[in-house]
């Protein structure tokens, strides 16, 4: 389980940075309404929020106890799977939007 939380934290941070760059270069648009509003208000606040959300996952990485909740395990694994797909799609969209 620690691996899953570690993976989610890094994936979220990477997605935040890639999204920030893509938005700054006007290669992509933010699909999440709340994050779009935050980006339009202040792009650096958007990035800080994404990185803070990653940092919130770190205590789960450092936790040495057993994660006994089946719900938590299923939720974390499902989130990892879905977020991986989203991250890959973001990367594809940015690559396709780059001028050749």
From TrEMBL:
TM spans (from-to): 7-25, 45-63, 75-98
Domain of life according to the entry: Bacteria
Domain DUF5658: start-end pairs: 7-95
Keywords on record: Membrane, Transmembrane, Transmembrane helix
Name of the featured protein: DUF5658 family protein
Organism: Ectobacillus antri
Lineage of producing organism: Bacteria, Bacillati, Bacillota, Bacilli, Bacillales
């Amino acid at each position: 389980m620690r691996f899953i939380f570690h993976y989610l934290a890094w994936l979220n941070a990477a997605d935040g940075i890639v999204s920030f760059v893509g938005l700054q270069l006007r290669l992509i648009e933010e699909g999440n309404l709340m994050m779009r509003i935050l980006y339009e208000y202040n792009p650096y606040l958007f990035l800080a929020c994404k990185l803070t959300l990653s940092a919130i996952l770190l205590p789960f990485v450092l936790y040495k106890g057993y994660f006994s909740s089946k719900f938590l395990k299923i939720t974390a694994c499902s989130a990892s799977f879905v977020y991986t797909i989203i991250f890959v799609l973001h990367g594809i969209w940015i690559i396709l939007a780059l001028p050749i």
